[in-house]
Amino acid sequence: MSDVKSMIEAGKTSLGIEFGSTRIKAVLVGEDNAPIASGSHEWENRLDNGVWTYTLEDIWTGLQDCYRDLAVDVKKQYDVELTTVGALGFSAMMHGYMVFDKAGEQLVPFRTWRNTMTEQAAKELTELFRFNMPQRWSGAHLYQAILNKEEHVKDIDFITTLAGYVHWKLTGEKVLGVGDASGMFPIDSTTRNWNKEMLAKFDELVAPKGYPWKVEDILPKVLVAGEKAGTLTEEGAKLLDPTGKLQAGIPVCPPEGDAGTGMAATNSVRVRTGNVSAGTSVFAMVVLEKALEKVHEEIDMVTTPAGDAVAMVHCNNCTSDLNAWVNIFKEFAEAFGMKVDMNDLFGTLYNKALEGDADCGGLMSYNFFAGEPVVGLDEGRPLFVRMPDSKFNLANFMRANLYASLEVLKVGMDILLKEEKVAVDEILGHGGLFKTKGVGQSILAAALDTPVSVMETAGEGGAWGIALLASYMNNKAEDEALDDYLDAKVFAGQKGTKMDPDPKDVEGYNTFIERFKKTLPIMKAATETMK
């Protein structure tokens, strides 16, 4: 412990903080890049006037509470006050719409990735660029605001993501990591910067509106992993740690999105590697060795934190509906006076699912808390369906809800793996779905019919990933590539479990997904009638 204490006092650590959908998490790593302390803050987006959002107050009170929790953990474990770190990094949910005027004032409330209000813009930009422009991307939100003739657009001086916003306020730098940037506007993987041709097309498209800006002028500067992205200012240090103990001057790495930090945290930034991050939303990333044959609306083209091309299947919904059902069981238990440990409850119910029929006994679940563009659903409508003769028991019920958490991901990944014949050697899973050992992992393996590995560190998630990117910036050798750094200095000797797909489960999941596809039109009709 004395060695760790000395390391912390000397500032030979790296700190990563990530804003997830339901939790802000901080992870402090030592010189060997292993986590040594953590902190967290629970939060939740709100539906305000039909818009999924977080307020600026939510962001800053949440960040400060998360950092305070980390500092308390450091003090408790090592009896030392946290006053500095060797490197710092921030990451967050990608996409969305945060716009500011020349005075730095926010022009409209933060529109998060979860909103599905930009269908017209996304469609027109996809046709214009011949490149899939998803609804949740910042560029789609910007163009939709233009189509809506929103008054604030003429006053935009800066558009960024949540990670870019936090980084800007703490360092004064209007920059963004290339991976996060690739969820705002298309990136050219040869230059690892904004796609100049598409920028020009966008400017030409909106020129008749007479706005006083060009799109590149209001976008952040793009940086790749390893580049320096500024230092923590005096104002930033006080904003992060109101107690005043944290010192300014800490070097900060490029702010990244949760997709990029997920790739770093699973060592899947090299070609032919892939990872699946499964929490409130779920997305799969595969690093490509060649370009896709076609443009697919279900597939996003983004990049690794180093700027390499990645095919991404992003689904707005994953565990929200599943968690809601688990909470019903919690309420049931408490109604009988039983005190419930949530980890035990999740573990018990998840493992019960493994006893169910491979095809869930004919039960169907649609986990749509929010709209789902991959399958053309505008609004959220969670729904559970069964036939009178379905095998309705607890095991099948839980299995159906676990299957549902990945059902839309399965639709998108089938396009990549079966239609485009994308080569992937192995998928690495991380996020809340994989916390119960072997359950989410086996179901993902069945859904993708591909081996799935889960590292022991998978539960650390994106906060650990951004801590690794901060460490890489500070400690890499000259010309040392990110994938080489991760292989040699982070994951060498790491233990993990690999699970091959069970043929019976693969067949069962395929039956489930065919049933899902056939009944999806009924689901969409129900959405319309429930408006």
Report on the structure:
The chain has helices at 2-9, 56-78, 119-129, 138-147, 162-171, 178-181, 196-206, 215-218, 234-240, 258-265, 320-335, 342-353, 394-404, 407-419, 439-448, 461-475, 482-489, 503-529; strands at residues 14-19, 23-29, 35-42, 46-48, 51-53, 87-92, 98-100, 158-160, 175-177, 187-188, 193-194, 221-223, 256-257, 273-278, 282-287, 300-303, 309-315, 364-366, 383-385, 426-430, 452-455, 496-499. By secondary structure, it is of the alpha/beta class. The protein has a seven-stranded mixed β-sheet, with helices on both faces. A five-stranded mixed β-sheet has the order 3-2-1-6-13. A two-stranded antiparallel sheet has the order 4-5. It is globular, with a radius of gyration of 23 Å. The mean pLDDT is 94.
Short description:
The protein contains 18 helices and 22 strands. The chain is an alpha/beta fold and 531 residues long. The strands form 7 sheets. It has a 7-stranded mixed sheet with strand order 16-17-15-14-20-21-22, with helices on both faces.
Structural class call reads: alpha/beta
Largest sheet geometry: 7 strands, mixed
Contiguous low-pLDDT stretches (5 residues minimum) are: none
Tally the helices: what do you get? Answer: 18
Mean pLDDT: 94
Could you give the count of β-strands?
A: 22
Helix proportion: 25-40%
In percent terms, what proportion of residues is strand?
15-25%
Question: What general outline do the C-alpha atoms trace?
Answer: globular
Strand order of the largest sheet: 16-17-15-14-20-21-22
For the record, give the distance between the C-alpha atoms at the N and C termini, rounded to a whole number. 58 Å
Radius of gyration: 23 Å
